[in-house]
Amino acid sequence: SDIGAQKDRVVTEEEWLQKWEMGSTGFHKEQGHPLLRKYLDVLLSGRSGLRIFFPLCGKAVEMKWLADMGHSVIGVEVSEQALKEFFAEHSLPYCEEPVPGISGAKKLQSTSGNISLYCCSVYDLSSSIVGKFDGFWDRGALVAVNPRDRQRYVSLMITLMEKNSSYLLVTVSYDPNKHKGPPFYVPESEIKSLFG
After folding, report:
1. Per CATH, which fold does 33-195 belong to?
2. pLDDT greater than 60 at residue 89
3. Hey, where are the domains in the chain?
4. Which residue ranges traverse the bilayer (predicted)?
5. pTM over cut 0.85
6. Confidence of residue 159 (pLDDT cuts 50, 70, 90)
7. What span, in angstroms and rounded, lies between the C-alpha atoms of 196 and 33?
């Protein structure tokens, strides 16, 4: 696939943390993403009480929306600031605990128990830590992952899928030679080869 000059581009964890600290979070949508509302039926497939995964969740408002519908929401994000802002902005009480098996990681869980957010690298997670999921909302994750790490990222997502899980993926289309990313350009042909 032709992803132009982006092929070797790397954004470090420190750079992402800095974006949150500086408030350079143009990728955060205060009103939630219209495509999730539009394709909610595809994600849920008439099912209730699902376990839904938000990779690289930031402080996505959709997490509260889906939890309020009765689903269990699990997210992962390197920025503790983003996770704390999520709970504060929704006036949700939560508790913090270390994550066994991941050095330095924390799990922030709503006291109602239906929202669990892991503060660590997505690559530190495994199904033995977070279980498997019925649904995925990948709104800004695959397009934020460094191009060289896409295969590793998708391979991990596949290990977290239940048999009948639904994966909603949002990407952006543009000329990758005119913008260095993120969000990175992920052509449809690559999505097909990554997810099969």
Report:
1. Rossmann fold (3.40.50)
2. yes
3. 33-195
4. none
5. yes
6. very high
7. 26
Report in angstroms the alpha-carbon separations of 188 from 85, 168, 191: 34, 14, 5
pLDDT, tens digit, for every residue of 106-152? 999 999 999 999 999 999 999 999 999 999 999 999 999 999 999 99
Instruction: Please report the pLDDT score of residue 2 as a whole number.
Output: 60
